[in-house]
Design a protein that fits this description.
three-stranded antiparallel β-sheet, 35% strand
Length: 115
């Protein structure tokens, strides 16, 4: 993932709402959808993308009153930073596990625009 893609995970409206909804609590996709006005299909797509980026995780599966299972998600993101310095974009995610993910290769960033 490049820094632009990483920054889009934070600035995309639905992704940002999902990250906020899952911060320090367990919540289902259905609850996120209803509470934040995200269409359920889009909610599941964004959750999958955020899971692939290790920013959220499924921490529990509960049985509903109708006998169906639903996943509960929580955020793994502690801090996120987006930097724009001298025409270069960088992103950094600090996870609750202590892992730091830097986007921009060697942390010198990548050029956003061709010169």
């Amino acid at each position: 993932m490049n820094p632009l893609q990483a920054s889009q995970l934070l600035t995309d409206e639905y992704s940002a709402k999902i990250l906020l909804a899952t911060y320090k609590r367990k919540i289902s996709a259905q609850e996120i959808s209803a509470r934040y006005g995200i269409p359920i299909a889009a909610c599941y797509r964004k959750i999958r993308v955020l899971e692939e980026a290790s920013l959220i995780e499924c921490v529990d599966r509960v049985l509903t009153q109708k006998g169906k299972r639903k996943n509960l998600y929580t955020s793994k993101l502690r801090n996120a930073y987006i930097f724009f310095e001298s025409g270069r974009l960088r992103a950094r995610f600090q996870l609750i596990t202590g892992v730091v993910k830097d986007f921009g290769g060697d942390w010198t960033g990548v050029d956003v625009l061709e010169e």
